[in-house]
Every structure is written in structure tokens, then in C-alpha cells.
Amino acid sequence: MALQLGDTVPDFTQETSEGSISFHEWAGDSWVVLFSHPADYTPVCTTELGTVASLKPEFDKRNVKILALSVDSVDSHKGWINDINETQNTNVNYPIIADPDRKVADLYGMIHPNSLNNLTVRSVFIIDPNKKLRLSLTYPASTGRNFDEILRVIDSLQLTDYHQVATPANWKDGDDCVVVPSISTDEAKQKFPKGVTEVKPYLRMTPQPNK
Ligand code: BEZ
Q: pLDDT (tens digit, 9 = 90+) per residue, 75-121?
């Protein structure tokens, strides 16, 4: 069965462009974004990996490690990284898993045979420090992903974990947040000194607690 939110993600040991990694050990106490793409030396993927490299300081700030995957070999990845750095004006500064036998791709359900024959689709997994799956999404090969949205989801997940607020539709960093349903309005008023607005008994808003 496909991985579901809240599942403990599978562990694996695999070669990457930065040497062999044992995934759970490598992840340690960090959050992880694991993302796959169809193949090396393809145009959309080239822009995606360059974009993620440029955003690496943003992921670092949030205690997030980046791990990419494609079904090609380490040697292929290394040659392609040179092209990404040259064309995207960046420095790929995170490992890319080599998965020629599709071991990790099968473990994580990244092959969708009716979409791309034997190639990984554009999957993204956000994994928390307890190795629980917190988000998964799948994009078609022809659509490059929006990594600002991935950062936005990480901010939302971390606000929920660390401050017990949720985020409303189209929330952006700095906007008001939603008090989670498990907290009563009285409790919320104690917990959120910046104030709580009760729009409805089930819809309570508060300024973003960590701003
Ligand atoms: C790409 O990464 O550019 C790509 C890969 C497979 C199909 C279409 C585009």
C-alpha cells in the first residue's frame, strides 16, 4: 500500500552523489525533504535541482535536509550536477540518490507505470524528525514544482508542532493563524498573549506566535 501521512517512512542504504547514506541515520534530528524526478539530463529537472540548491539556506534555517533521487547512476549524477551548476548559476549542495535498480523508488511508490514507464514521477515527501511522513505530493513530469510552497508547508507544520496553531487558506509567513480545535478559547487566550479573535466558536484566529 502507498505510504500514508503519519506512517514511519522506510529506511534504506543507498549510494548518492555524496557517498553512501543510511537514510534514518543520515536524517538524524532534522526534517527531510525527499524528492524524486524522472531522469538526469532533462530540462525541467535541471531547473528544479538548481532552484532547490539556491534555496538551501532557507531549508537550513528550518533544520531541513534535502535529498533528491533519480533512477540514474552516481557517475551520471556527477556529470549532470556540473551542468546544473553551470546553467542554473548555483552549487548543488545536497546528495542525489542513485537508484538504477529502483529500490528506493519502489519503497516510496515513486514509480507510476501508467504515467512514466519505469521512471520516477515528481514525488515530494516531507518527513519530520520522528521519521513520520507529514506531506506527500505527486506532480506530472511536465510541471516543475514550486519549492516556495514546500517551504510554506514546512513553516506551517513547524508552527503546528511547536506552537499549536494551524494555518488558513493561502497563509503566508506573518499572516494570522488558526487556533487548533483541541484548544478551548479560554486556554487559547492564556496561551496566545497577542490575542485571540473568536469569529465562530470553532474558528479562532491569533497573530503568528513566533513573529
Ligand atoms: C523534464 O525533466 O524536463 C521532463 C522529464 C520527463 C518528461 C518531461 C519533462
A: 999 999 999 999 999 999 999 999 999 999 999 999 998 888 788 88
Predicted local confidence at residue 75, as pLDDT: 98
Q: How many helices (H) and strands (E) does the chain have?
A: 7, 11
| 142 C-beta closer than 6 A to ligand 1 | yes
**Cα 41 from Cα 73, distance rounded (Å):** 12
- What is the 11 CA–ligand 1 centroid distance (Å)? 28
Compute φ and ψ for 136, nearest 5 degrees. Answer: -135, 140
Domains along the chain with CATH numbers? 13-144 (3.40.30.10), 163-206 (3.30.1020.10)
8: DSSP letter: B
Q: Which of 45, 126, 141, 188 is catalytic?
A: 45
Q: Model pTM?
A: 0.96
Q: Which atom of ligand 1 is nearest to the CA of 37?
A: 2
Which residue has 510554506 as its cell numbers?
A: 152
Question: Residue 165, SS3?
Answer: strand
